[in-house]
């Protein structure tokens, strides 16, 4: 009988999966009379000042930016900008969206918007921002080669890693036991959506996931519902539906997969069932959402 050789793990990372979009990344040089009207969008924005001076109004609060100063604008914040000096100004703007509960929780822990050039966050992000700036100004509107796309991805994720690391240091927040449990529940729910991706039955997952989560955390299903609702303000089942919706929207935005395929990946037996559910969530069909997203992306690419 052959004896199997033994193997010892020296180290192992958990599986990593994140839905991420980088949109409207641009550098712009403008004269002193240039303005951008009040607006808001569904993305995070890093607004970095390269030269001159400008004023940005965010949710009614005015911020004066000089060279090296940085603004971190979160989704839904209304903002507008005007020049503040006689010589015009140059800025670099990065828009991104992330669907990952743990990551977004870290992004939203610190509520500050303005970070001066000598702050730890502005200085900590400067290297990654310089790399992205160089890539943006090198190519302008030219299509990126596969090699350059990978360089953009690498710089973008380096930027996000530095951003969440710096924000976590700035936000001296200690989570309560209840918050910790609620975040663990959220992570389990997101894992259940990954399970649906692999096994393709959303109904089976809905029947078993609360019991599985309760067992893994050694608490009762009723405690799962109560704790999650107290921390997140919504029921775990609704959070699951929202997570499925976000994944459906990501696939419709970021891939060319046909809707039948997306429906199958999300565990729906038929396209019609998926389309009915998606319309109940959003008020429009998956096809209409994809067309609208493509038009919006084209507009935002020219944005602020």
UniProtKB/TrEMBL annotation:
Keywords tagged on the record: DNA-binding, Transcription, Transcription regulation
Protein name: Helix-turn-helix domain-containing protein
Top-level division of the source organism's lineage: Bacteria
Classification via Gene3D superfamilies: Homeodomain-like (1.10.10.60), Jelly Rolls (2.60.120.10)
Domain HTH araC/xylS-type: 190-292
